[in-house]
Amino acid sequence: MSDDSENLGGSAASSRYREWLARARARPMRNWPWDVAAFLWGLAEGIFFFIAAEVLISYLALSNPVRALRAAGAALVGAVIGIAMLYLWAARDVFSAMTLLSALPGLGPEVMEAAENALMEHGLAAVPAGVLSATTGKAHAVFAAQMGIGLLPFLAVFAIIRLIKLLLAGCVSFCLGAMAQCFLSRRIVIALWALAWALIYWRIFWPAA
Q1: What is the pLDDT of residues 93-149, one digit of tens each?
Q2: Cys-Cys with 61: which of 17, 115, 172, 174 at CB 3.0–4.6 Å?
Q3: How far is CA 156 from the centre of its chain?
Q4: Vertex 143, ends 140 and 147: CA angle to 5°?
Q5: Would you tell me how many other CB atoms lie within 10 Å of the CB of residue 80?
Q6: E-state strands within 33-100
Q7: What is the spatial distance between Cα 79 and Cα 201, in angstroms, rounded to a whole number?
Q8: How far is CA 30 from CA 34, 35, 40, 41, 53, in A?
Q9: What is the dihedral sign for C-alpha 19, 20, 21, 22?
Q10: DSSP, res 148
Q11: pLDDT tens-place string over residues 10-48
Q12: Which residues lie closer than 8 Å to 40 by C-beta, 6 or more apart?
């Protein structure tokens, strides 16, 4: 009886894995709407949006790693353009740029002051830590423009760290999703994905809760 149960369990897991593989083989022509969405998300995130594009990339990676990789590239291009626009805006009118940032969740006075102090003390070397954060990359762009850190060096560091974050989010989601979907339904996996991101942003926006 136990052997039969194990066989049934293994068969179910194998069936789910085959379904997952089938979803991972989507036609390239179906990717472009996700590419556009990722680009726009990255662009908005670089200027004012406070939810990282890793949310979208990790969702796509659950079922289609190729689609997620393409979207990560599009999100990176959008993010670089967006952060460059924010940098240039701050160089021209820092007060309006600061007003925008102060209205965003997770960018309180303490965070802004820490970002400014880090750039004053370490210069360009402080940028990776800011980009790795979910919120302070924008603050670093504004202060970098005021402290004379060049746009191109700033963008180069920003792009490298941003790419690492996007790829890491996609890889982790892909690996965990591939394992989980062998044993759990897709709806449950997506629910767990949503719960994980909700907890992450809860800790970011309400750290003292």
Answers
A1: 989 998 888 888 877 778 888 888 888 888 888 888 877 775 678 888 999 998 989
A2: 174
A3: 18
A4: 125
A5: 19
A6: none
A7: 19
A8: 8, 10, 17, 18, 19
A9: positive
A10: T
A11: 565 566 656 655 655 555 556 789 999 999 999 999 998
A12: 78
**Burial readout 22-36 (b: 16 or more C-beta within 10 A, e: otherwise):** eebeeeeeebeebbe
> In angstroms, rounded to a whole number, what is the distance separating the alpha carbons of residues 187 and 199?
18
Cα 21 to Cα 10, 15, 24, 65, distances in angstroms: 16, 10, 5, 10
Closest CA to 127 of 105, 143, 148: 143
Length of the chain as a residue count: 209
Q: Which two tokens stand for residue 167?
A: 């790829």
Number of helices (H), then strands (E), in the chain: 10, 0
Going from the C-alpha of 109 to that of each of 79, 116, 139, 203, the distances in angstroms are 24, 11, 11, 18
- Residue appearing with tokens 């390239």: 28
SS3 53: coil
What sign does the CA torsion over 39, 44, 47, 49 have?
negative
Given a contact cutoff of 8 angstroms between Cβ atoms, the answer to whether 137 and 158 are in contact is yes
Structure tokens at 153: 């060096």
